[in-house]
Amino acid sequence: MAKEKVKKHSEFEELVENPDALADRLVSSEDFVKRNKSMLIGVFALIAAVIVGGFLYFNYRRTQNAEAQKAMFQAVYYFEADSLNKALNGDGQYDGLLKISDEYSGTDAGNLANFYAGVALLKDGKYAEAVSHLEDFKSDDYLMQARAYSLTGDALLEQGKTKEAADLYLKAANENANPYFSPQYLMKAGIAYEAGNDFKAAAETYGNIIEKYESSAEVNDAKKYKARAEMLAGGEQK
Fold first, then answer.
1. In three state form, how does the secondary structure of the chain look?
2. How far are the Cα atoms of 9, 21, 26, 36, 84 from residue 18, in angstroms, in the given order?
3. 66 vs 9, higher pLDDT
4. Nearest to 203 by CA among 181, 227, 171
5. Among residues 147, 112, 154, 150, which one has the least CA distance to residue 133?
6. For residues 135, 136, 141 and 147, what is the CA-based torsion angle, rounded to 10 degrees?
7. Could you tell me the pTM of the whole model?
8. What are phi and psi of 138, to 5 degrees?
């Protein structure tokens, strides 16, 4: 390593002290540029294209998000007014949640439109479509994400998909598990298991509430439901 440093230092001194050596090095570099001119131009053009493309894409997404948020305002107004058809499909002047979620997918507003659309479709009895939109919603807010999982479970339960519904309720309960919402989701999971005649799984789920969330408002119901589920599970085994 020391020898290499000495060698490089000597070469540097030679270039500084010997004008001819420096000239030779510059000529050599110039020849390299001439020989590889097309390649270098292509590389620089590619780098420039990536930088410009990234800048344009960033601005495009920002513009798209702003447009989507503006469109969302009226759609959410209709949603809160319980005008589900206008919320979902628009009023002729403003886009509805379905179009916003499709045309502005990938933006924050488009993502949120999926959540609202899923809830509206669930209220409107269009359960399969509700599942599709709720599954497309993704959030770093664990309360919102857990709520989306639970609503997806509701839509699945309405379709008679009890096991899938229970799985989503459990997913909601385990999304940053907490004593405020997790017991509610576990109760829903237990009920879904019972709807599918899986009384053993139901009893175990109610038991989790009793063991982990003994101070929750759901614990008394969990005790009653657990006793019933255990009795039904025992009857099945006989």
1. CHHHHHHHHHHHHHHHHCHHHHHHHHHHHHHHHHHCHHHHHHHHHHHHHHHHHHHHHHHHHHHHHHHHHHHHHHHHHHHHCCCHHHHHHCCCCCCCHHHHHHHCCCCHHHHHHHHHHHHHHHHCCCHHHHHHHHHHCCCCCHHHHHHHHHHHHHHHHHCCCHHHHHHHHHHHHHCCCCCCCHHHHHHHHHHHHHHCCCHHHHHHHHHHHHHHCCCCCCHHHHHHHHHHHHHHHHHHHC
2. 14, 5, 13, 28, 84
3. 66
4. 227
5. 112
6. -30
7. 0.74
8. -135, 135
Of 146, 211, 144, 156, residue with least CA distance to 184 = 146
Q: Which two tokens stand for residue 150?
A: 């639970």
Whether domain 141-238 has CATH 1.25.40.10: the reply is yes
Q: What are the boundaries of each domain within the chain?
A: 141-238
Q: Which two tokens stand for residue 238?
A: 């006989």
| Residues 87 and 107: beta-carbon distance below 8 Å | no
97-116 pLDDT, tens digit each:
999 999 998 888 899 999 99
